[in-house]
Amino acid sequence: MVDTSWSERRQRMVKCKIHGLHYDPEMSTGCTRCLREAAKAIPKRSPQLVLILLCLLGMAFILLYIFGPSSTPRNSVDLGVASLPEARIEKLDPEPFRRPIENLETALFETPIDAREELLVVSSDISAAASDLSARILDAEPTRGLETADLIARMGQGVPLDQVAETDIERVRGQWLRLRKQRLESADWFFDPSQAPQTESASAADYSEIASSLRSVIDTGLIEAQTLNDPNLASAEEGSADERWKTFTADWSQQLASLESRLPTRPGARADGRLLLAIQDLERALSQTRALVSDPNLPSVSDSRFEEAIAASLRAQQAFDDLLP
Questions:
Q1: How many other CB atoms are found less than 10 A from the CB of residue 11?
Q2: Using CA atoms, how far apart are residues 115 and 298, in angstroms rounded to an integer?
Q3: Segment 213-222 mean pLDDT
Q4: pTM of the predicted model, to two decimals?
Q5: Are 228 and 244 in contact (CB under 8 A)?
Q6: String of b and e for 48-87 (b: at least 16 CB within 10 Å)?
Q7: CA distance 146 to 134
């Protein structure tokens, strides 16, 4: 049976004066569109001069790579993975660049990420360390190091700072390890990623907070569905109930996507079995909510997907809380 706590929240619901969507003032400072617009207000960092110079150098390298004399086929290099045998790539001695390499590997592997704010800081540190290493290689080896410097500078590009996720950090880590193996001679002081400290990203506390937030997201959709299914309330609004549901889900999906972006890296199979089972319930709740979000038709308040999503999120949160000290 659907949890009736939504009826209490329904009585508190107010209509946003700007967007016309309903929200609970005790749970949120505005409707889903207000929250979405506020999230977009994160200031972006202005590009650094060194990044602009590296981009120009990268363009020059690409022109040389395409039109200049070279035995390397076009499109054979993708962030350090070349089609030529590894032995034919002239590697650089890493010793002159030990300090910037260590700074980059510290940012990549040794800085724990426990919150969204820390994720932004870490990604910024990685970008700055990669730019510094690229510039130093280019300064010391303007000919032999040009391609390697360009590859390092392009690591992780394509994702705006305010949209970076932990999976993007993992992708850059893999890029660096492949590039380091292929472009630099080996060194005993290179960081061993298998020795990286375990972070708290998969802790029960983090998952419990997400399960709680998911419950609020589900309640928001349930209350909106109840409002649109009420003929007395629906008649006072412009447009059909289905049209208004489509408008609502366009913003509701952004709220769900924002929540999913905060999910920690899933722990491995050796993690506590109770934690893994709780994560499965959380994923089941997310799956049911996604199905509701993507449904173009207005669901009834008795739709089983609401019930299953609420039940699974409650089980997950209770299990996460039981794991807390």
A1: 7
A2: 35
A3: 92
A4: 0.41
A5: yes
A6: eeebeebeebbeebeeebeeeeeeeeeeebebbebeeeee
A7: 9
